Amino acid sequence: MNNFCDIIPHPDGWTYVMNGIESRCSFHTYELAVAAARVEMAKRKHSRVFRRMELNGDMLPVQPQPGSGLNA
């Protein structure tokens, strides 16, 4: 079973949702939201699949890239 960490748009920028629970705060940039999600994810021992909400509402997996902060 995959546990998803969704990075989604927020009126103030970006936020993340883990296990259906939205972060208490928002972040000005997508990269800050990913970094904050990784910190929260490190506290939990479950592997996560990062997804990003596209303009059409689809949730697509984010492919880890060097320097993106998404590498495990």
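^ that was protein a. below is b, sequence first then the tokens
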Amino acid sequence: MKSIKLAVVAGFAALCASQAFAEDAMGTMSMMKGGQVTAIMPDGHMGTMTPDAKMGADMMKMAKPIKHCMMMMTDAKGKAYMIDTSTKKAQAECEKMAM
């Protein structure tokens, strides 16, 4: 009887842990932290870093503010594309997705 309880508890713990790892692996989107830099490659993989103060200041000299919602997607082969969101309809769809 104790072994069944132990197996159920272990199974439940494994299920919870696997969902947490799956969410992390799926790349759930969240807000960037202050000073964080995100890079997106054409093959769809992404990376983030928080540069030191000097590197961050140098990068800010090249930076331009984002003026509207932006969307990106990958095709079946994993190549990344940026979606044109310049129309009002596309902006509304982008904002709806980001909420």
